[in-house]
Here is the input.
Amino acid sequence: MDLSILYRGPLASCNYDCPYCPFAKRRDDPATLRTDRVALDRFVDWAVRNPHDDRISVLFTPWGEALTRSWYRRALLRLAGLPQVGRVAIQTNLAARLDFLADADTDQRRRLAFWATYHPGQVDREVFLRRCGTLRTAGVRFSVGVVGLPEHLAAARSLRAALPAEVYLWVNAADGHRYDAAQQRAWTELDPLFGYSVHPHPSAGRSCRTGESVVSVDGSGTVRRCHFVAEPLGNLYDGSYRAALRPRPCPLVSCDCHIGYVHLRELPLYDVFAGGVLERIPHAFPDTASEIAAAARPAAAADPVSGG
Here is the structure.
């Protein structure tokens, strides 16, 4: 089967102090870092063995910043070198040096992808852009995004102007922030798919690919349908999760996070992001992304809405 895995280990430390993030400037103690490294190595070893002969794609979704840790850089290269891995991607602020990519061959670079977030006030824009340039030079796929706070709008516009046209700039609606029509228009000018982020999606009873072809795995190997549904499906390492993989409706009232709602079957996002679901890259950006978004965008709300 084709199986997409969202992996999140114990790591929760971050080198940034963004005021909107609960993990800002958090430091994991040495014991937590050792546990995280051992857990990640175990996961990669499982992927190497591939006991069920699956076609695997992996997205690392750490609470904190993982790319600054050497064991994640090694894991990216090791997974990208496996023929059974279609894609290995990571959510990152790009704070780490990227010289490890020099050790990747052409096939590894083709399988690697980065979901990069720009945090104004935490990193110099030119430094961030140089790191994006390193990814482009290496031939590694990536998207870039920002949190849609009012104080980030000017920086986001400046970033969009500086990025190559073919790089998709996504915008995440900020938790708890209410967007009026003018604000929605301003952010949608930067990200034609912003409407999906700003509106929570009703999901109760709706068909979702999570729990069937997409799963969440934590550091102990516990498998869940996604990061937002606590019920375990089994364990990765004893294979007990396999019997639980099947189509199932979502048990939650709504879904307001991209890594969740992108998998809802009633939304057209698998078509929009065809070939780039894990790394959040539309398949036709920039030439026809606006047209795709216009055809697929949810109806705009008449009243201000709160992002999530």
About this structure: Residues 30-49 form the longest helix (20 residues). Residues 109 and 140 are 5 Å apart (CA to CA). The mean pLDDT is 90.
